[in-house]
């Protein structure tokens, strides 16, 4: 009996995915739920080597220098390695997996490189690639944190690069036009795939971490 796969996604970097995933993980663990948390990219693993090369600009200084299909394969391979070595058995034995990013990040980020008329073709290809060819499990729910770029930019400003530990941003984060385009694309995707949208801005202000988490917690319990 397979478990549950719960994804925390967003359309903007530094929007609280890691923060919210950790809080949900702790809450479920304290309730005695058999739960694990994973995060993508899996920077701790050597499987993320090509992802790191891509994000630091070894294949091109701009995100758009690397074709969406090619870049997607780096992230998929990293995810596959994590799935096969870290959580496939746990999940297939009924465990609950909370993922900070998943295939959904390729949908949000890489699809934003496509011309609008080519986007659905890419999304169909990706679906077949990750869930068909690689046989990665499909999410039971995707919880989408809606944080417009003007808010996430502030959260990103002081945050260190996750794999270099330096202040220098990766090729996605340092491209303002790319971030705007990705955010717009994410709204299209969230609607198309029926993701559960958590509006993180209220009355022009970012909601508190706990307030957002209470909403996410309810969604999670609808799935369990
Ligand atoms: N609702 C919030 N209010 C204030 N600060 C927040 C909120 N949510 C997250 N933060 C802060 O914003 C920063 C980025 O958060 P976090 O690392 O969780 O984002 P992320 O979406 O996982 O980032 P990335 O897209 O790079 O993976 C952190 O310093 C975190 O403490
Ligand atoms: C998993 C995954 C990620 N990406 C993109 C999304 C972000 O811009 C970076 C990762 O940055 P983080 O701050 O370390 O989270 O990579 C992607 O395009 N495809 C994916 O599958």
UniProtKB/TrEMBL annotation:
<comment type="function">
    <text>Phosphorylation of dTMP to form dTDP in both de novo and salvage pathways of dTTP synthesis.</text>
</comment>
<keyword id="KW-0547">Nucleotide-binding</keyword>
<protein>
    <recommendedName>
        <fullName>Thymidylate kinase</fullName>
        <ecNumber>2.7.4.9</ecNumber>
    </recommendedName>
</protein>
<comment type="similarity">
    <text>Belongs to the thymidylate kinase family.</text>
</comment>
<feature type="domain" description="Thymidylate kinase-like">
    <location>
        <begin position="11"/>
        <end position="190"/>
    </location>
</feature>
<dbReference type="GO" id="GO:0005524">
    <property type="term" value="F:ATP binding"/>
</dbReference>
<dbReference type="GO" id="GO:0006235">
    <property type="term" value="P:dTTP biosynthetic process"/>
</dbReference>
<dbReference type="Pfam" id="PF02223">
    <property type="entry name" value="Thymidylate_kin"/>
</dbReference>
<dbReference type="GO" id="GO:0006227">
    <property type="term" value="P:dUDP biosynthetic process"/>
</dbReference>
<keyword id="KW-0545">Nucleotide biosynthesis</keyword>
<dbReference type="InterPro" id="IPR027417">
    <property type="entry name" value="P-loop_NTPase"/>
</dbReference>
<keyword id="KW-0808">Transferase</keyword>
<keyword id="KW-0067">ATP-binding</keyword>
<dbReference type="GO" id="GO:0004798">
    <property type="term" value="F:dTMP kinase activity"/>
</dbReference>
<dbReference type="InterPro" id="IPR018094">
    <property type="entry name" value="Thymidylate_kinase"/>
</dbReference>
<dbReference type="GO" id="GO:0005829">
    <property type="term" value="C:cytosol"/>
</dbReference>
<keyword id="KW-0418">Kinase</keyword>
<dbReference type="InterPro" id="IPR039430">
    <property type="entry name" value="Thymidylate_kin-like_dom"/>
</dbReference>
<dbReference type="GO" id="GO:0006233">
    <property type="term" value="P:dTDP biosynthetic process"/>
</dbReference>
